[in-house]
């Protein structure tokens, strides 16, 4: 492993919150815990902190690797580290697992202290607003009054946008990558089909499958396969798999024959082995519900009237799940409110997953923007 520009060995940290947490739905969690990681050093006046918000299946392990498992590299390791676009020699970066997650933060698999059993189906539906509220409470605990930047891709980008609305004075820069101001009807439909696959799995047991010692593997596998198709572009699938067969002739059966079928089954099985089905349901519902314009008669301009941050909005040409026009809608609303916004549409063949890829133009844009942020507190 080349560790010359890696943050190196990292470890997770835990933050416990013992005051009741009121969710947007009206449900109350009596207490909760967030798991997070940090990279770099917080400067004296705490002006160089960057919050990374994760997407649907993301988590707190954003960069570096674990001593006990060097192959477990952070999901955005190409972006964060010494000399990388988000330079840990300049910034103090925080990555966390959101409330409702299955990677250490309080969620459906956590033990409900009132019952002694996992929350399961009783865990409340959480929203982007709830996540940002809990992230602000983590920032309070760390003594960070204002972030230099809040950044995220996809669902993470929605959280970054929400920061500018819920806490306009606590973030100087917002970076929304491959994101949208709300889901289209088509996207909501994809999420509903994915949830239906889980909800109708006979091993789901209404969300309380933990007590039965089973996992709704089939439903979770199908949900992931469907999602994965939408994250890739047609060009990416054509280039990688085409119509390639596993053998040199058709079998005239329903067995796996095409390479793309084998790939999707592998991705589905791998995902079902480590991700919690209840968390998947929660995350997709949070995607569906995010709609800041809803409270303003669908007027996005009015929704962003409270924002004060500077913005970088990025989209990718082959991303049809969060298409560039969705990012341009954000830009239009920001410009309407006379906010400083930079926009780039990156040419990429990787579809929605482009925001996770190491792409020269994309990384150059990110590097330039973060260098400008760094100049604010190094001048």
From TrEMBL:
Keywords: Acyltransferase, Amino-acid biosynthesis, Cytoplasm, Methionine biosynthesis, Transferase. Pfam families: Abhydrolase_1. It catalyses: L-homoserine + succinyl-CoA = O-succinyl-L-homoserine + CoA. It is found in: Cytoplasm. The record marks 321 as: Important for acyl-CoA specificity. Residues 48-339 form the AB hydrolase-1 domain. The active site is at 154 (nucleophile), 319, 352. Its main location: cytoplasm. Substrate binds at residues 224, 353. GO terms for molecular function: homoserine O-succinyltransferase activity. InterPro entries: AB_hydrolase_1, AB_hydrolase_fold, HAT_MetX-like. Its EC number is 2.3.1.46. Pathway: Amino-acid biosynthesis; L-methionine biosynthesis via de novo pathway; O-succinyl-L-homoserine from L-homoserine: step 1/1. Gene3D superfamilies: 1.10.1740.110, alpha/beta hydrolase. PANTHER family: HOMOSERINE O-ACETYLTRANSFERASE. Homodimer. Belongs to the AB hydrolase superfamily. MetX family. Transfers a succinyl group from succinyl-CoA to L-homoserine, forming succinyl-L-homoserine. This is Homoserine O-succinyltransferase.
């Amino acid at each position: 492993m080349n560790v010359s520009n890696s943050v190196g060995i990292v470890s997770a940290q835990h933050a416990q919150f013992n005051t009741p947490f009121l969710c947007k739905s009206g449900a109350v969690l009596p207490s909760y815990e967030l798991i997070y990681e940090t990279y770099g050093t917080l400067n004296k006046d705490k002006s160089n902190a960057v919050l990374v918000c994760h997407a649907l299946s993301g988590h707190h392990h954003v960069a570096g690797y674990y001593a006990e498992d060097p192959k477990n590299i952070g999901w955005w390791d190409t972006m964060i580290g010494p000399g990388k676009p988000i330079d840990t020699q300049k910034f103090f970066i925080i990555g966390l697992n959101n409330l409702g997650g299955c990677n250490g933060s309080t969620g459906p698999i956590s033990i409900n202290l009132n019952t002694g059993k996992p929350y399961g189906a009783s865990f409340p539906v959480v929203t982007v607003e709830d996540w940002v509220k809990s992230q602000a409470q983590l920032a309070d605990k760390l003594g960070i009054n204002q972030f230099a930047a809040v950044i995220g891709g996809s669902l993470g980008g929605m959280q970054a946008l929400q920061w500018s609305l819920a806490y306009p004075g606590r973030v100087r820069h917002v970076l929304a990558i491959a994101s949208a101001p709300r889901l289209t009807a088509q996207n909501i439909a994809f999420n509903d089909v994915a949830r239906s696959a889980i909800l109708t799995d006979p091993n789901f047991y209404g969300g309380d499958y933990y007590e039965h010692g089973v996992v709704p593997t089939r439903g979770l596998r199908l949900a992931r396969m469907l999602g994965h198709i939408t994250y890739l572009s047609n060009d990416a699938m054509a280039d990688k798999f085409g119509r390639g067969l596993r053998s040199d002739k058709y079998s005239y059966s329903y067995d796996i024959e095409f390479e793309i079928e084998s790939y999707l089954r592998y991705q589905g099985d791998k995902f079902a082995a480590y991700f919690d089905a209840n968390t998947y349901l929660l995350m997709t519902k949070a995607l569906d519900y995010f709609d800041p314009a809803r409270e303003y008669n669908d007027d996005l301009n009015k929704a962003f009237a409270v924002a004060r941050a500077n913005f970088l909005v990025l989209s990718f040409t082959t991303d049809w799940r969060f298409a560039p026009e969705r990012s341009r809608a954000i830009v239009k609303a920001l410009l309407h409110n006379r906010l400083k916004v930079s926009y780039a549409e990156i040419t990429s063949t990787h579809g929605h997953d482009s925001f996770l890829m190491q792409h020269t133009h994309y990384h150059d844009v990110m590097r330039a923007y973060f260098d400008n942020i760094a100049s604010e507190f190094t001048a």
